[in-house]
Specification:
Blueprint (H helix, E strand, L loop, with lengths): L6 E6 L3 E7 L9 E4 H5 L6 E6 L2 E8 L4 E11 L5 E11 H11 L7 E5 L8 E4 L2 H9 L1 H14 L7 E6 L6 E7 L2 E11 L9 E5 L1
Parallel strand pairs: 9-10
Antiparallel strand pairs: 1-2, 1-8, 2-3, 4-5, 5-6, 6-7, 10-11, 11-12, 12-13
Length: 208
């Protein structure tokens, strides 16, 4: 089965780094030039939009995960003033890219860096601030299994780097808050229902 990951190829120039992409079904129509300084000074959570002839790219760095996401829009000019192309998103580790850029400026240093894009199924970090409530859930085998299933099925967004869980007044339940790019995101409750009647028939649901 063909891989869904994309090879990102960076080539070092004096002032710019050029990017090309190669996946199992297509490759970028041309190289995309990005100024070195823009890559080196990209701050956490900052969005940088750059262009190269017809094409453009949106760069976003996530310091918590150490990743850099680049959304390319590959465009080519055609007759009649029209443009045609396609969009592509790749995520690569930021620190190794910076290391390559630094080494490329040295005599005999590497001029090409290749890396497979990171799979988009990355999961956020789950942080439980109410350890007492968590221990209560873990002590009950039935509740423990239901909690693990709820966390697996409901908190798997790659754009969220962390989810904080706090105390909730409902037994075996939690209040939660997402953290996206260092800022508070959606908050709500992971609530355990029908625990009075029959634990085996009880279930977790997410309320926002």
């Amino acid at each position: 089965m063909p891989s869904k990951r994309t090879m990102v190829i960076a080539t070092a120039g004096e002032c710019c780094i050029s990017f090309r992409t190669l996946s199992w079904n297509r490759k970028s129509p041309q190289r995309f030039l990005i100024v070195r300084e823009w890559l080196e000074t990209l701050e956490d959570g900052q969005t940088e939009i750059v262009s190269d002839i017809h094409s453009f790219a949106v760069l976003r760095r996530n310091e918590a995960t150490g990743l850099l996401t680049i959304n390319f829009t590959w465009l080519n000019g055609v007759c009649g003033g029209e443009v045609r192309g396609w969009e592509e998103s790749v995520t690569i580790p930021y620190a190794p890219l910076l290391a390559f850029m630094g080494e490329s400026t040295q005599d005999g240093g590497p001029k090409t860096w290749k890396h497979l894009s990171v799979c988009s199924t990355s999961r956020p970090r789950l942080v439980f601030h109410d350890q007492k409530r968590l221990r209560e859930c873990m002590a009950n085998k039935t509740v423990r299994k239901k909690l693990a299933r709820a966390l697996r099925d409901n908190f798997c967004f790659p754009c969220v780097e962390q989810i904080d869980f706090y105390h909730d007044i409902v037994p075996y339940s939690f209040f939660f808050r997402e953290v996206c790019n260092g800022r508070d995101g959606i908050c709500g409750g992971l609530i355990f229902h029908n625990y009075h009647d029959n634990l085996k028939k009880a279930n977790y649901s997410v309320h926002t």
